[in-house]
Every structure is written in C-alpha cells, then in structure tokens.
Amino acid sequence: MGVVDLPLIGRKQLARMAAHKIFFHLTWSTHRRMPMIDGPTRNFLDEFFRRTIIKEDVTLIAVAFLRSHVHLLVRCGPRIDLGHLVQLLKGGSSYAASRQPDNKLGLRWNRQYSVTSVSPKLLQTAIDYIEGQNQRHPTETINTLKSEPRNHCA
C-alpha cells in the first residue's frame, strides 16, 4: 500500500493547532520517473521523512508513496525555508536510501519539485487527494508484503 492508511494527526488536533496554519503540498518524482520506490524503500522513506520533518519543527499531515513519486502535506511555521526542507528530504533520503542493504533499485530524485500552498479551508480536500493517490495511479501502487513492517502513527 503506497498511502499511509491512518491519519497522521487527528481532526481534533488539527483544530487545536497553533495560530500559524500554513500548509504546503510537496511532491517530487524519481529520476526520469523510474519506479525506484519499492516496499523496503517506502518504509525507509517514511521513517526518514518523519525524522527529518520533526527535526525541522514541521508537522506531517499526510503522505503518499508511489513507485515513481511522493506527496507530502505539511504544516509549517511562518519562517520555514521550504527549499532547505526539500533539500534535506530529497538529498538526504536519496543518499541514505541508496546505501540501505535491502535497496535493490537505488534512489535518485528529479531536480524539480512542486510546492503548492493549501488554504486551511481546503485542508481536508488536500488530505483526500493525497490519500487517493493509489486510485489515481493504480499501476504505481507499492505492494506490501506481509513480512514488511507497516508504519502507523496514533
């Protein structure tokens, strides 16, 4: 399964967030949109992105992993350097994932990425869009083997 199937934060927590409600939908693809994200790589990326985002004092709202691209919905403070955050996520994950013993495909990202601001009023629409990526791209779904651990946030 390529989309995290449990909300990363609850609706009540969304309503209680700090005064700054600045949301961004980030997306980028693998080099030449080649299918480089398999189950073990997805698991690695999920953990890597969460750790990196926490260190940068950003909140991960939703995430979707497909074989050739990723989608993230994040909440940031007003002084966030998005270019730096994306550099940490893309560059750091590519470097680290390509050195994982179970990474058979390698991982390289395209240089480009997309950032779209999301109005708090359209937050649920953005969450639904990201959670619906498997339906939009059925040939890009990452199969989960029973032996693979699945990450869920409470």
Mean pLDDT: 85
Quick one: biggest sheet? 4 strands, antiparallel
Element-level helix/strand string: HEHEEHEHH
List the strand order in the largest sheet. Answer: 2-3-1-4
Task: Assign the CATH architecture.
Answer: 2-Layer Sandwich
* Total discrete domains: 1
Oligomer: single chain
Strand content: 15-25%
CATH topology: Alpha-Beta Plaits
Mind telling me the CATH class? Alpha Beta
Q: Evaluate the radius of gyration.
A: 15 Å
The parts where pLDDT drops under 50 for at least 5 residues are 1-6, 146-154
How would you describe this protein?
By secondary structure, the chain is an alpha+beta fold. The chain has a single domain, classed as Alpha-Beta Plaits. It is 33% helix and 18% strand. It contains five helices and four strands; from the N terminus they run H-E-H-E-E-H-E-H-H. Helix 2 packs antiparallel against helix 3. The model is unreliable at 1-6 and 146-154 (pLDDT under 50).
Keywords:
4 strands, Alpha-Beta Plaits, 4-stranded antiparallel sheet, alpha+beta, 18% strand, disordered N terminus, 154 residues, 5 helices
Short description:
The protein is an alpha+beta fold. The chain is 33% helix and 18% strand.
Task: Give the helix/strand layout.
Layout lengths: L10 H5 L6 E8 L9 H17 L3 E7 L3 E8 L5 H16 L16 E5 L4 H9 L1 H4 L18
Antiparallel strand pairs: 1-3, 1-4, 2-3
Helix pairs in contact: 2-3
